[in-house]
């Protein structure tokens, strides 16, 4: 079926090109004959061009009537017939060229729009190299099963989802994300089908079949994209109900008032409504193309048009506003055990578990370079955790029963978990509660910036729906400034909430999980974070993001609003100019040939204007110098490294509040080294290098003054902590008189650094990321 459709499209494209060649040749040949005083030959050439256009135009009208649509193509056919009837062959030839040019422009826009979608399908590999008994064997991708090891040469496309084994690898993910940059993947990291191996040879272990992989789902969506016409395109059919009678009345009035059929034909000529027929579809299809190039697959022009009218955003939390990947925020240790040992033993036991928390613990241990042991005698209790023997120790990781005795430090862990919205994973070693791992689902770095962009784009209400507990849900809602937060929501509850919002205003729902699929289908527009591989939500959605970036929601809305605005502008201005020309023609101020030429100019202008939807439009992101972009990315990388160590400050404060002064001194020394050797050099480098460059790029010191003021407070608190540590070293322990001020310094420093990091990431570091994405999607 796809082959027949492609063949028909190629034949149609050739017919449109042939029509343009015939009509232009007839017009040019007639002009040449006329210049040689061969009037009869000229009229014959122009008549030939008119008839050449009349035949397909007649078919378009018949085809429309067969589908129950009396479109404005009727006027084009009447004008062609009229020019032949009154002998205005030059006008007929001009109209023929106009129709052929419009159709060719429309076809070019559609081909360009389809090119990115078609390239997804052509990108799919047909074979892969599978390891079998130490040998590589070329097999069809459909033969790949979960657990198979696949070898990828440089430049190979990953045939199915999996994870890296053997050695780290480098991949080009532009086919899925639209970003022209490579990413590094470490051992154990997931890799999606459709990305390209941009480094040397590497190996992956398949986690699913090729047919159920991420890229296969994207290709399926791409084949469905642009399958429907947008409501704004159907305006042409509705306008035809009054435009055709008005045109015929004006034409009849011109004939009756003047007694000249030529004047009536002139009205028909300038009324030929190519702006309405072609400009709106070109703008919408161009918007679809623009969206596909940045990793946003829109199923239909209707979805794009509805997105441009959205007033309310309903959004999931886990995996959408947050990363969906729990991250270790802290390790709390009992007596006679250190944090590295706790993490290594827990990760070793959790290697056999598929639970998302277990995966996070293993990932964290590998990121710290810990050597994991092979667990033995493994048992896993759903809802409780894993028990295994690791290096001769019985290790239990997960929940703990209420009957187990808990040391004093356990109560503070549970209190911190409640305040932070964290999940506690307890670690017992040889029947002793030895430590706890705190894991949080962090807010996406681009979430605050995306929310601000959506509000500035016209979103009046933002509601979060989540099945998570109220505490972490409310905290996320407060940080992002959402209008309403609903926690403990079942899929049916989400559908009810979405219906309620949809009754008040056009509503978009954004989600990523299988449980979001009913709500996505219920919304005016459903957007799925399809890069995470939730097939059910992708199938239920109108729009799918093939890259795991929330900011693409704002990008898609920008494209939708701009495409709709350009479509309305092109159709309105073009039709308005045609109506003005009709009035001139009715009073004999425009001859048919001149009117046809005027209409040609109008049509080409509005169609070219509609093609602007393929471009970026005016960017709200300032142009950054390459050196500043590199600087921003470098400091952003340092932030990511430091963020995990910020809890050292709070851990030191917690230890200081306890009775163990030796532990408190050890924690204070760790924190002071972190502050003096990592934090302060970073802050000073920002003040000396980054901020002056930002002032030049963003236009003055006012643009960074609020964030820059935090540097002096950080410097002051760091110096104060260092002075306390020196005084404690002199005394041999922390003096009771120091405790109050030290606690104030540590907790204050922790809060200031967290806020300062967030301000810089949301205000400045995101600029380099956004600038690179815009540049990479041209």
TrEMBL record:
Residues 635-766 form the Hemerythrin-like domain. One of its GO terms (molecular function) is ATP binding. One of its GO terms (cellular component) is plasma membrane. Its EC number is 3.6.3.-. It is a multi-pass membrane protein. Residues 123-222 form the P-type ATPase A domain. Gene3D superfamilies: Calcium-transporting ATPase, cytoplasmic domain N, Calcium-transporting ATPase, cytoplasmic transduction domain A, HAD superfamily/HAD-like, nmb1532 protein domain like. This is Cation-transporting ATPase. It comes from Rhodococcus erythropolis (strain PR4 / NBRC 100887). The lineage of its organism: Bacteria, Bacillati, Actinomycetota, Actinomycetes, Mycobacteriales.
């Amino acid at each position: 079926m796809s082959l027949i459709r492609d063949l028909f499209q190629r034949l149609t494209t050739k017919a449109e090109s042939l029509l343009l060649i015939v009509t232009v040749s007839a017009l040019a040949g007639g002009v040449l004959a006329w210049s040689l005083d061969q009037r009869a030959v000229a009229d014959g050439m122009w008549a030939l061009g008119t008839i050449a256009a009349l035949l397909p135009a007649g078919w378009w009208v018949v085809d429309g009537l067969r589908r129950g649509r009396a479109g404005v193509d009727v006027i084009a056919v009447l004008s062609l017939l009229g020019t032949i009837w009154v002998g205005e062959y030059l006008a007929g030839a001009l109209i023929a060229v106009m129709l052929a040019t419009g159709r060719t422009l429309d076809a070019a826009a559609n081909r360009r729009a389809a090119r990115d979608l078609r390239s997804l399908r052509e990108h799919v590999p047909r074979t892969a190299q599978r390891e079998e008994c130490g040998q590589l064997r070329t097999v069809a991708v459909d033969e790949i099963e979960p657990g198979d090891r696949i070898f990828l040469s440089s430049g190979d496309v990953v045939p199915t989802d999996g994870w890296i084994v053997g050695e780290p690898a480098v991949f080009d993910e532009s086919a899925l994300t639209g970003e022209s940059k490579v990413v590094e993947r470490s051992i154990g990291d997931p890799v999606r089908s459709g990305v390209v191996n941009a480094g040397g040879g590497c190996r992956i272990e398949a986690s699913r079949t090729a047919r159920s992989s991420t890229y296969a789902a994207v290709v399926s969506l791409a084949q469905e994209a642009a399958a429907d016409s947008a409501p704004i395109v159907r305006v042409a059919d509705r306008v035809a109900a009054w435009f055709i009678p008005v045109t015929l009345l004006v034409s009849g009035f011109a004939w009756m008032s003047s007694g000249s059929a030529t004047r009536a034909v002139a009205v028909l000529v300038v009324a030929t409504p190519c702006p309405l027929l072609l400009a709106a579809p070109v703008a919408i299809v161009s918007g679809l193309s623009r969206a596909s190039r940045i990793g946003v697959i829109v199923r239909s022009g209707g979805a794009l048009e509805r997105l441009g009218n959205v007033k309310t955003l309903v959004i999931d939390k886990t995996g959408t506003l947050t990363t969906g990947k729990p991250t270790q925020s802290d390790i709390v240790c009992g007596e006679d055990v250190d944090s590295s040992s706790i993490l290594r033993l827990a990760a070793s036991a959790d290697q056999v578990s598929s639970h998302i928390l277990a995966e996070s613990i293993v990932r964290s241990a590998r990121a710290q370079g810990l050597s994991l042991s092979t667990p033995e005698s493994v048992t896993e209790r759903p809802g409780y955790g894993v028990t295994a023997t690791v290096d001769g120790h019985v290790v239990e990781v997960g929940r703990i029963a209420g009957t187990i005795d808990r040391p004093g430090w356990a109560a503070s862990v549970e209190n911190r978990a409640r305040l932070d919205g964290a999940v506690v994973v307890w670690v017992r070693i040889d029947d002793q509660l030895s430590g706890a791992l705190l894991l949080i689902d962090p807010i996406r770095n681009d979430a605050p910036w995306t929310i601000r962009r959506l509000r500035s784009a016209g979103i009046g209400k933002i509601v979060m729906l989540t099945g998570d507990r109220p505490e972490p849900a409310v905290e996320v809602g407060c940080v992002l400034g959402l209008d309403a937060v609903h926690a403990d929501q079942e899929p049916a509850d989400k559908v009810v909430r979405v219906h309620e919002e949809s009754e008040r205003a056009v509503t978009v729902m954004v989600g990523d999980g299988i449980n979001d699929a009913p709500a996505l289908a219920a919304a005016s527009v459903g957007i799925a974070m399809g890069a995470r591989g939730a097939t059910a939500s992708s199938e239920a959605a109108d729009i799918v993001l093939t890259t795991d970036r929330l900011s693409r929601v704002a990008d898609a809305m920008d494209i939708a609003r701009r495409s709709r605005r350009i479509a309305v502008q092109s159709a309105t201005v073009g039709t308005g100019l045609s109506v003005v020309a009709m009035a001139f023609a009715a009073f004999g101020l425009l001859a048919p040939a001149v009117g046809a030429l005027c209409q040609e100019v109008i049509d080409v202008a509005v169609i070219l204007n509609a093609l602007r939807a393929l471009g970026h439009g005016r960017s709200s992101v300032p142009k950054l110098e390459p050196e500043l972009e590199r600087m921003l990315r470098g400091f952003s990388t340092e932030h990511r490294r430091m963020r995990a160590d910020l809890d050292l400050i709070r851990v030191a404060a917690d230890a200081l509040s306890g009775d163990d002064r030796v532990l408190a001194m050890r924690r204070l020394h760790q924190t002071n080294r972190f502050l003096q050797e990592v934090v302060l050099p970073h802050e000073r480098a920002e003040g000396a290098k980054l901020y002056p460059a930002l002032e030049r790029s963003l236009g003055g010191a006012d643009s960074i003054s609020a964030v820059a003021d935090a540097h002096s407070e950080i410097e002051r608190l760091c110096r104060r902590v260092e002075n306390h540590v020196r005084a404690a070293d002199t005394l041999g322990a922390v003096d009771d008189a120091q405790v109050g001020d030290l606690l104030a310094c540590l907790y204050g420093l922790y809060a200031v650094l967290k806020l300062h990091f967030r301000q810089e990431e949301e205000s400045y570091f995101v600029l380099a990321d956004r600038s690179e994405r815009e540049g990479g999607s041209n």
